[in-house]
Amino acid sequence: MPRAPMIAPSLLSADFSRLADEVARVADADWLHVDVMDAHFVPNLTLGLPVVEAIQAVSPIPLDCHLMIEAPERWAPGYAELGARNVTVHAEACTGDPRAVARDLRAAGALAGLAVKPGTALEDYTEVLREFDTLLVMTVEPGFGGQAFMAEVLPKVRRARELVDTGHLQLFVEVDGGINTDTIEQAAEAGADVFVAGSAVYGADDPARAIAALRTQASAAVARAGTAG
Ligand code: DX5
Ligand code: ZN
């Protein structure tokens, strides 16, 4: 049974003056990806708890909150408490053991995610990740939408898939950054199961069609990888 790919449109590329409408346009997706940036961990600033709470109230699909912020220990549980399905913190931003954040997130009823920037090695976190539900592998430097996919990160996706397939880890492997119709197949073949896409979805005339096209491509690539492997 091949993995069913999940598509998570990133609201970062939406029209922020019409958030409720923009959320409704991607109702066919699996998760709604919300990028929280604090102008410290990354150079950009987006939105925080009050706005995410308003999005949660109108979203027909579960929220996937990607926290690109310092002191995630302090803020992450708030996103779980407001009802987000998955809350991801950056490994590089945690000052203590990331497992403490994972426990808090799970206790608040969310899935716990750990994100790694392109230059961060997976091997330093393989034990820690046993207490996480999602591993977000950044395929661009975090901070901005619309950047080019970094294919050099694919070996890390492959390694993560191997750790899951061999039973060492039990988590979703999510890729974020530069995912579009040109790149999604490589990411799916490497082993990703959740695909964040910002500009590829919100930059399309018809976001629902863009989501369907990405899902079809990812499913075919996962099936090919399954028969090849
Ligand atoms: C970048 C964000 C991404 C971004 C993806 O730091 O984490 O989620 O919105 O945008 P695209 O798909 O345009 O690269
Ligand atoms: Zn993101």
UniProtKB/TrEMBL annotation:
Where is a divalent metal cation bound in this sequence?
H33, D35, H66, D176
Supply the gene name: rpe
Q: Enumerate the GO terms in the molecular function aspect.
A: D-ribulose-phosphate 3-epimerase activity
Q: Which residues bind substrate?
A: S10, H66, G143, F144, G145, G146, D176, G177, G178, G198, S199
SUPFAM superfamilies documented for this protein? Ribulose-phoshate binding barrel
HAMAP family, alphabetically? RPE
Needed cofactors: Fe(2+); Zn(2+); Mn(2+); a divalent metal cation
At the highest ranks, the source species' classification is: Bacteria, Bacillati, Actinomycetota, Actinomycetes, Geodermatophilales
Similarity comment: family membership? Belongs to the ribulose-phosphate 3-epimerase family.
Q: How is the cofactor bound?
A: Binds 1 divalent metal cation per subunit.
What is the annotated signal peptide range for this record? none
**Protein name, as recorded:** Ribulose-phosphate 3-epimerase
Q: Which Pfam families match?
A: Ribul_P_3_epim
What does this protein do, in the record's words? Catalyzes the reversible epimerization of D-ribulose 5-phosphate to D-xylulose 5-phosphate.
What EC numbers are recorded for this enzyme?
5.1.3.1
Enzyme class at the top of the EC tree? isomerase
Organism annotation: Geodermatophilus maliterrae
Q: Which UniProt keywords apply?
A: Carbohydrate metabolism, Isomerase, Metal-binding
What InterPro entries does this protein's entry cite? Answer: Aldolase_TIM, Ribul_P_3_epim, Ribul_P_3_epim-like, RibuloseP-bd_barrel
Among CDD domains, the record links this protein to: RPE (cd00429)
The positions flagged as active site in the entry are: D35 (proton acceptor), D176 (proton donor)
